[in-house]
Amino acid sequence: MKKLYIETLGCQMNKSDSERIAGILSQYDYSETNNEKEADLLIINTCSIRQLSADKAYSQLGVWGKMKKTKPNIKIGICGCVAQQDKENIRKRAPYVDLIFGTHNIYELPELIAKLEKGEKICSITTKPVIKNQNDFKIIRKDSVNAWIPIIEGCNNFCTYCVVPFTRGRERSRNPQEIIMEAQNVINEGFKEITLLGQNVDSYGKDFNNPDITLANLLRALNKLEGEFRVRFVTSYPSDITDDLINAVDECEKVCKYFHIPMQSGNSRILKEMNRRYTKEQYYEIVNKIRQRFEGVTITSDFIAGFPSETEEEFQDTLNAIEELELDYSNTAAYSPREFTKAGKMTDKFIPENIKYERLERLNEKNKEACLKSNKKFVGKTLKVLVEGKTEKDGKIILNSRADNNKIVHFEADKYNIGDFIMVKITRAQTWCLYGEPVE
């Protein structure tokens, strides 16, 4: 068999795509390797949400291009959002690339690989997905306990800073029976956690124009499947979190009490400039509603520092929001201008780089404070955790686990296995994780 090496950048959807790419190619005599130097086919699955991510992709292509000078028979491929966005321009920067395919072309891979092996150079980028039954293709999952299952791809919101509608296209939901079948398969294979994925996961089903096909009802259907497992979903758009979805999370004992709800800015004017379809006050209302419903719920968010025209006072609203909402963790980034987006054209309103990154530094400090404050709340409490890995330190076995609410928990024990659900009493909190001891 030929050797395949895949490097994945970016979000969980990219990780899921890489698992599907590896699965498809395994049916065509490619086995995956962790050593790029022994690979016959090198593929980088890219992210273009920020310029740094795109630059990293081209840097890796450069490394592989040098490898090809001494090993001319290796094939180099690029896929994902950078491929979808840059298309044929990739070859101007990296003429040694053999295979370019977009986010919509994964299920066209059998045909593309056949052409590649005949010596053709390929660029296949479409604006509409190549539709095939996804359950007809093998998936090689990387995680031992968690299975990523995409349920909706693309986004209709057109936030002014975001390239997703241009790289992933408009929202497209998978058939619920196809999702349930895939979920049943991963449960049968022994996976203990299912993560439902979508750039805007709460929009699931809207494109079917069927009021019964919703994320809430999908959660209810998955909850009925037999076995010991749990379900979580990301990423939620604030104003799409319905009362019925909150009710479903409450009703379903297998659904995690965890919400990832990007706010992006704590100021209503900036939210309007971003084309986010909610105000600061509406976001507060959503978060408070969830907190009142669930004890011990974790709510995480995303924030951008230095969006065009953001004033110091408006940035302060973001810092205040993290504290006032008692957010448990937030992904943070400095604003990065992206091609095709409206914000990317606001060049006269760009924040100077030194100010932008100084704000990001303060945002990160506020995030650290919020994380530690959140974690301290759980000291003395008992959480049900799923063991995800093991490490050895000073002759002791340390189990690495994750609670229902997404908190990372470490504890010492030598009689449990990866994939076990354990009750753990929390004894200590640090900024990014909790420590505890198993409770029989």
Structure description:
Helices cover 33% and strands 23% of the residues. By secondary structure, the protein is α/β, with parallel strands linked by helices. Among the domains are: 2-124, Response regulator (Rossmann fold, 3-Layer(aba) Sandwich); 382-438, OB fold (Dihydrolipoamide Acetyltransferase, E2P), CATH 2.40.50.140. α12 (312-324) runs parallel beside α13. The longest helix has 24 residues, at 353-376. The protein is globular, with a radius of gyration of 22 Å. It starts with a strand and ends with a strand. The relative contact order is 0.08.
Classified by CATH, the class of one domain is: Alpha Beta
Global morphology? globular
CATH H-level name of one domain... which superfamily? Response regulator
Low-confidence stretches: none
Oligomer: single chain
Strand order of the largest sheet: 2-1-3-4-5-6
Number of strands: 19
Mean pLDDT: 96
Radius of gyration: 22 Å
Largest sheet: 6 strands, parallel
Name the features:
OB fold (Dihydrolipoamide Acetyltransferase, E2P); alpha/beta; six-stranded parallel β-sheet; 13 helices; single chain; 23% strand; 440 residues; Rossmann fold; five-stranded mixed beta barrel
Task: Write a compact overview of the structure shown.
By secondary structure, this protein is of the alpha/beta class. It has helices spanning 12-26, 51-70, 81-86, 89-93, 109-116, 164-167, 176-188, 215-223, 243-251, 268-273, 280-293, 312-324, 353-376; strands spanning 2-8, 30-32, 41-46, 75-80, 99-101, 122-124, 146-150, 152-153, 172-173, 193-197, 230-234, 258-260, 298-305, 329-334, 382-393, 396-403, 408-412, 421-429, 434-438. It is 33% helix and 23% strand.
